[in-house]
Each structure stands twice: as structure tokens, then as C-alpha cells.
Fold:
Amino acid sequence: MTSIGTRLYTWMHGEFVGEDEQGNRYFRSRRGRLHGRKRRWVVYDGPVEASRVPPEWHAWLHRMVDSPPAADRPRYPWQLPHEPNLTGTPEAYRPPGHDFAGGRRAAATGDYEAWTPER
Structure:
């Protein structure tokens, strides 16, 4: 949930720039400049979690690109939809053998040879 201070600051000083597919809204300052540049920020729709910002908006927020991403920009077949970091949630990746994924590891195959230093 966005704080009342952030909402008030956004209402008074923010210029709406765009919205991503998760509903996060992106703003820049209308007038004032900080160190010669307009301030940029995001107002999250849901939990405030930085990993919920898609890469194209991350690039804009951190001034890697000058213009905000266009909604009609084509996506390449190799580009996957953005997923937030799921660490610490029930949807987190759990490799085979993890306690929460059954707890049974595959049997050793015997192809491992321990290293021992030469004397």
C-alpha cells in the first residue's frame, strides 16, 4: 500500500508517464529538478517490491534510456514476460531434493571423484 505522503507528493508534483502490465504507475516531476534532472518514481499497484518493475521500466527509472517504453513496442520471441522475484513465497523455485519439494534426492551415480591434494 502506498503511503499517504507518496500519494500526496505524486498528486502535487507528479506528471503521469505510463503504466505497466501489472498496474504499476510511473511518474516524473512536472517542474522541479534534482541535480539538473527531473525526478522519476513508481507507485506500485499492490505490494511494494522492487522486483515487480519490468526491465524496460527499470531502464527508464534508472536513466539508462531517456524515453519511457512504448506500449506498442514489438516484443521479440525470445523475450519472456516479466516475473517478480518469488524467493520466500510458496511459488519459489525448489530444486529436487529440497525439504519443501519432497525431500528425496536422486541417488548418487558414482561418477564423482573427490579431490585430494598431492603431497
Q: What stands out?
A: The first strand starts at residue 14 and ends at 19.
